[in-house]
Amino acid sequence: MPRKPEPIQKILVKIRPVWIQLVGEELAQDAEMRASLNEQLERFFDLLIQTAHSGDTAWMDSVLLDWAKSSTETNLETGVYQVTFLLNRMMALMIQAAKETLTKQQALDLLAAVFPIFTYGLGVVARYEMETRVAYISSEMEKAQKQLARVDRSKSAFISVAAHELKTPLTLIDGYASMMEDMLREGKGLPLDSLLAGMRSGIQRLRSIVDDMLDVSMIDNNLLNLNIQPIQLDTLLEILARDFHSTVQRRRQTLEIRHFEGSDQWIYVDSARILQAIRNILENAVKYTPDGGKIIVDGRTLPGFIEVTVQDTGIGISLENQSVIFEKFGQLGRLELHSTGKTKFKGGGAGLGLPIARGILEAHGGSIWVESEGCDEEKCPGSTFHLLIPIRTETAETKMKRLFDELEKKE
Ligand code: ADP
Questions:
Q1: Domain membership flag for residue 154
Q2: pLDDT (0 to 100) of residue 403
Q3: Residue 164 belongs to a domain
């Protein structure tokens, strides 16, 4: 006598708790995760029963798409097809649960019913994940293309600004040379001191632009070699106080360099490079702050880092430009960001100071950012630059070197 087939819902109800437990044990790492996974599995199973009963696989769509959506967002970058994997495991554990709980016939009936549903599920999820992945890849490609176009544009802008910057001191030197020529021709006595001083300042300017360009190119190509030595930030700040003294006096600005917790700590950095980075920031603070303004250098110790802040009462920086100004070549395409802009108290500069400061800090494992309420040449909201310098402890290598140095001294 042919056997009366057992209703599939009944078989499913029987296998349900074992299957949910197996899936939970395998896929959830902790109790909290298991609770939320269980909720999802219960929902899945309800729909599985509906689908098996009605024969309409569309019942599964809502849960499958919810899972696919929440997974693809986190897995796009790594390319993991998480829900496809999950469904495969769920099917395998269904077979295991069937073996443990059902008779052979029940197991065969169950698998005949659920296998097409899982296959359908895999199709839906795989299609969704593929589509999302393709959309993600094309948007990434579009971004990369835009970035390339920007780099291209900014590189040619860089060449034109750099050429312009180089021309200024060249014209100056040229002018002094012509003056000398004229005076010689006319047999006049030469005011050698002032002519030479003028020429020297032009040459110095040229040298600093060329040095900056070389630094940018080294940073660009990861060729910045750090000469790590122990130093106290106080020492660097004292050097800067001395160097900026006359400029700040001329501009009637106040430069307040504070001692702070950690400024006397011995840290291991490339002191010449860190000095250069802070100097670049200070130069800008002086440059973009009107006469009579105030600049404060302060800092604090954070876990693993010393943070130096340079705060000014200058023209400030718009939110939009706050990220652009640190990019190599980024600011050069926009001449209003360039120091030969309209504000009369601004000085000269090739627009490389911030990318260099950033390159130096990043080479140390640190970072740099700016805070400002915006750019207003009348109200002068000011800017605060933050420089995060990692505190390195003495490495075994430097300890050995110190030991050798000591031994050498004794010999
Ligand atoms: P440069 O000063 O030579 O143009 P930088 O790379 O040092 O080049 O700075 C890039 C731009 O960032 C400047 O042209 C200026 O617009 C802006 N900037 C930097 N520091 C300040 C500051 N302290 N206040 C206002 N604007 C600033």
A1: no
A2: 60
A3: no
Instruction: Report mean pLDDT in 10-residue bins for the chain, 411 residues.
Output: 72 94 85 84 93 91 85 56 82 93 92 91 86 86 86 73 81 87 79 83 86 85 87 96 95 96 93 96 95 97 95 95 79 48 52 91 95 94 97 63 63 58
pTM assigned to the model? 0.60
Of 145, 178, 213, the one marking the end of a domain is 145
Q: How many domains does the chain have?
A: 2
Which residue minimizes the CA distance to atom 8 of ligand 1?
351
Minimum CA distance residue for ligand 1 atom 14 = 338
For the segment 298-352, what is each residue's pLDDT rounded down to a tens digit?
A: 999 999 999 999 999 999 999 998 988 998 655 544 445 444 444 555 555 667 8
- Ligand 1 mean position, distance from CA 322 (Å): 10
Residues 90-100: pLDDT tens digits? 999 999 999 99
84 lies in some domain: yes
Q: Indicate whether 355 and 255 sit together in one domain.
A: yes
* Containing structural domain, residue 309: 227-397
Most ligand 1 atoms within 8 A of CB, residue of 161, 212, 319, 325 to mutate: 325
What distance in Å separates the CA atoms of residue 256 and residue 245, rounded to the nearest whole number? 11
Residues 135 and 254 in one domain: no
325 lines ligand 1 (CB under 6 A): yes
Residues 6+ apart with CB under 8 A from 352: 212, 213, 215, 216, 328
Give the Å distance between the CA of 92 and the centre of ligand 1.
62
Ligand 1 pocket check for 282: Cβ under 6 Å: no
Answer yes or no: do 17 and 133 share one domain.
yes
Are 141 and 231 members of one domain?
no
CATH of the domain at 275: 3.30.565.10
In a domain, 325, yes or no: yes
